[in-house]
Design brief:
alpha/beta, Rossmann fold, 2 domains, ten-stranded mixed sheet, two-stranded antiparallel ribbon, 13 helices, 16 strands
């Protein structure tokens, strides 16, 4: 701004400070009706971004991040009070993993009132894709809140803050936990039964949250639902000197070979019988052989190689060349190499086509390729068209921008939140845990999950609090129609039984 001084005809430049308004919440509500389990339900969808603030001793509450969420709440009958409705109506907070994944998979795959349409077995349909009413939604049993951690979905650090501060094991748990506490307070749900459901790295987050919510906020949970589990990273890390993954992945290699009809005829008759045989070998003779290392006699080495070939569909010569240690990233390329096909990591039922059949690893995961397009397209359309939330930001479905992911608390060690879960269950003996495994999941194999839970050293009185289920599908078992139906049945039973236990105490 230029001002004139009448006495000396000089000018002076003055700059007016520009202030940026603080970020604010952006919330949209819409109203819907859905038929779930044969019942017509009316519900409210709340979609938006809530500003998460830090508690800074010097600066007070300081905006740090805008957390995007979608919540579905069953409408309260007029004759029921708000307090009574909250006390009887559970709430479940949901997230996926990655790290770097939005909540889209559980949201539009199994839990929400709308779901993406794929072929019955999960194969890709031609675009454009579509959503349908989800008869398998959990909304008939519990209200649902889908959370996108920072840098996933539409969640971002606010201007002046860096996303990187949220990209790590501990800050991720803290930011998601603080959002859960804030949402619970804002929407008056402290009196409700409370659950978490996470998938993949989301199970790591869920177990961590069980401890963080209890210890930081006094926030006790009724139950945790874990889909495709990794709590102890020792079980899935193919590092030199760590033989455990080779043992725990073996049954899933066998299941994959079974599906693609690569096993000997006697092993192709019954999947579960075959897996029982492979599990016994893996945890017995194979584990012992690997423990022997170079001291293993040549004759015994040849016997183990032959058994591995029988259970994996790979050649004895190939297995001997791996020193009896089959890496997942090699297996997905090797199994169908003679057919010039690869198999999926997230779901080994699916096949991919690389440029050639050489090399040690595949070019892409065919089981991710079949879901990426439909889920991305439908989420972007659904958010804007039906939920009426507008944003020009890209919705980060599965973002690489969160990497490198920091594990500062686990330098020179493997992440193991199994111990966090054990302690949380000891403090809160009413906490129940549901575990869903896919037989064809090569990302988080089912035997690794069983191993983790059998090594929690839980008190015998708490072991009954764990429910473990298995499905003839992969990491996202719900893309397989029969598994989706069974998962709904199993989740319903878990919620019903958990709440029944609560009522018996009342």
């Amino acid at each position: 701004m230029t001002m004139s001084n009448g006495d000396n005809n000089t000018t002076k430049n003055e700059t007016t400070p520009q202030t940026t308004p603080p970020p604010t919440d952006v919330i949209v509500q819409t109203h819907h009706t859905a038929t779930i389990g044969g019942r017509s339900l009316t519900y409210t969808a709340t979609t938006g971004r809530i500003i998460l603030k830090s508690e800074d001793e010097k600066e007070g509450e300081k905006p740090k991040a805008a957390i995007f969420f979608v919540a579905y709440t069953l409408d309260r009958p007029e004759e029921v009070s708000e307090t009574a409705h909250a006390a009887s109506r559970p709430i479940t907070f949901s997230f996926n993993g990655g790290p770097g994944s939005s909540s889209v998979w559980l949201h539009l795959g199994v839990l929400g009132p709308r779901r993406v349409v794929l072929e019955q077995d999960g194969h890709l349909l031609p675009p454009p894709y579509q959503l349908v009413d989800n008869d398998f939604s959990l909304l008939d049993k519990t209200d649902l809140v889908f959370i996108d951690p920072v840098t996933t979905g539409f969640s971002r650090a606010v201007p002046g803050e860096k996303d990187k501060q949220f990209h790590g094991f501990k800050p991720d748990i803290e930011s998601v936990g603080d959002f859960i506490r804030l949402y619970t307070s804002r929407y008056h749900r402290w009196g409700s039964p409370r659950f978490l459901i996470g998938e993949s790295y989301g199970t790591t987050r869920a177990a961590g949250l069980a401890g963080y919510l209890q210890e930081r906020h006094g926030y006790y949970l009724n139950g945790i639902m874990l889909v495709s589990v990794v709590l102890n990273f020792l079980t899935i890390s193919f590092d030199t000197g760590n033989d455990l993954p080779y043992i725990l992945f073996l049954p899933t290699y066998a299941a994959t070979a079974y599906y693609h009809k690569a096993l000997e005829p006697d092993l192709q008759v019954d999947l579960r019988r075959t897996l029982a045989e492979v599990e016994a070998f893996a945890l017995g003779e194979y584990a012992t052989a690997l423990m022997m290392g170079d001291q293993l006699a040549d004759e015994r080495r040849a016997e183990i190689a032959a058994r591995l070939a029988r259970y994996t569909g790979l050649s004895t010569r190939y297995i001997e060349s791996t020193n009896l240690r089959i890496d997942i990233h090699r297996f997905v390329k090797e199994l169908l190499r003679d057919q010039r096909r690869t198999v999926g990591r997230l779901d080994s039922r699916f096949q991919g086509i690389d440029r050639d059949s050489a090399g040690e690893a595949y070019e892409y995961d065919p089981s991710y390729a079949i879901i990426q397009g439909p889920y991305t397209g439908m989420l972007n359309d659904y958010i804007r068209r039906e939920l009426k939330f507008e944003s020009d930001l890209p919705y980060e479905i599965l973002s690489g921008r969160v990497h490198p992911w920091a594990f500062d608390e686990h330098q020179n060690s493997y992440v193991n939140v199994g111990e966090t879960l054990r302690k949380a269950m000891g403090i809160n003996p009413h906490l129940r845990v549901f575990v869903a495994n896919g037989y064809y999941d090569l990302a988080t194999p089912y035997l690794a999950t069983r191993y983790t839970f059998s090594h929690l050293e839980l008190d015998p009185s708490l072991r009954k609090n764990i429910t473990m289920t298995h499905y003839e599908a992969g990491h996202m078992m719900y893309i397989h129609a029969p598994s989706l139906a069974q998962l709904k049945t199993d989740l319903d039973a878990f919620l019903t039984n958990t709440l029944a236990g609560r009522q018996s105490v009342d």
